[in-house]
Amino acid sequence: MIKGKTFLVMGVAGAVALLSFNWQKNTGSKSPDPEKNYQEYCAGCHGAQMNAFADRKWKYGNSAEDLFKSIKFGNKDDGMPAFAQTFSDAEIKALADYILKGIANVDRYNFNQKPKSDLFETENGKIKLEKVFGDAKNIWGMAFLPGGEILATDKSGVLYLVTEDGKSKKINGVPAVRFGGQGGLMDVLLHPDFAKNKTIYLSYSKPHASNNNLQTTAIFKAAFNGDALQSGKDIFVAQPYTSTRHHYGSRMVFGKDGMLYFSVGERGNERENPQSLENGLGKIHRIGADGEIPQDNPFYNRKNADQSIYSYGHRNPQGLALNPFTQQLWEHEHGPRGGDEINIIKKGANYGWPVVSYGINYNGKIITTLTAKEGIENPIFYWNPSIAPSGMAFVNSDVYKGWKGNLLVGSLRFQYLNRCVVKDGKIVKEELLFKNIGRVRDVRQAPNGYVYLAVEGEGIYKLLPQQK
């Protein structure tokens, strides 16, 4: 955990114990600064964000005693040098305590038990999760029709119409998708004037016409007649196609200006795509309802730039929502190991990936030493450890006590719903809801004010507050 190229792997999980361990000799009388010592001696190998470093399997144990021994005596076989000559025992103890705080932060997401009931306690009363649709097991996105029905996408390539009594039918006319990895049929969105024009939009992973190894993110527009999609066509196809099958992005929302905003992931090529304006990957895009590119887009007149780009420097944005109180566009995206972000999207702004990040790579190696840089927008909030966020919705109804103005975010990794309390454009508090319910892929508020969750392997749930 030290300067240089060594990498510490400390072991299989153990209980996070506070120090009952005899710290041996040399406790000293000075007051050590463990955070400073971590940054000086550990960050060079393990990254500046200790909470990201703590999110790991601990080969040599993660108790207070285990950490103390690893720091003091090292682990020669894994390239971990001993620090007995560098730190006093008091400094080692303080550093171990500091790392234990990071381990405890990870452990708060480790929910051991599956729900035993459909009734859940929250800070503001009980909520029942009522399953309204269970025929499809891989729901990715939802949209609510004026009559109360739900259009739901299944990642495998099926679009369902779900009635209020839970019945469903498959809708014809859906484009062929490349189903595999993280790809398939993804988001669904209604045109703002759907009641009159019956227009819907789908995002999906589009296979290349002549090279079966390539695919990309595309936006499909069609008219919905109740049984099928008609006059369907792609109005956007991200360039270039790539062979990877992850980081498609694919969330869509209409802005207050009537333009269609949507996300495209960097497809796993962080070194070339997100910081380049010459391709459409790792970006938030802005186009008209029919696919036309607005001339007031920030890079419309820049030579060789993709004219539909609205912001860049994104990794894999799977949450996009218009704040109904401010009309700002909010986004969240997956970081690497640590550093999932929430951003407020600004025209032409660079959001930094991979130049800045609060995370490290999955193998523990550092991606960047920077968490901020001039000319790059900082996130308004980030998660360490990564929760793998998906789906995003603001609550602007009075259905749920204390929730109005809150932001809801699904967690794929830890399988819960994250309630974010928003004040003055900042997230000031979180509540972890419906622990271990399953991988929450999407969360939406319906026009009637009720919130719905799409949970992988389960289907769609409606959140019903219970009267006291």
Computed Rg: 24 Å
Q: Which bin fits the share of residues in helices?
A: 10-25%
The strand line-up of the biggest sheet is 1-2-25-24-23
Task: Assign an overall shape.
Answer: globular
Count the helices. How many? 5
Which range does the strand content fall in? Answer: 25-35%
Q: What distance lies between the first and last C-alpha atoms, to the nearest angstrom?
A: 52 Å
E-strand count = 25
Q: Spell out the helices and strands N to C.
A: HHHHEEEEEEEHEEEEEEEEEEEEEEEEEE
Largest sheet: 5 strands, antiparallel
Q: Name the average pLDDT.
A: 92
The assigned structural class equals mainly beta
Spans with pLDDT under 50 lasting ≥5 residues? 1-31
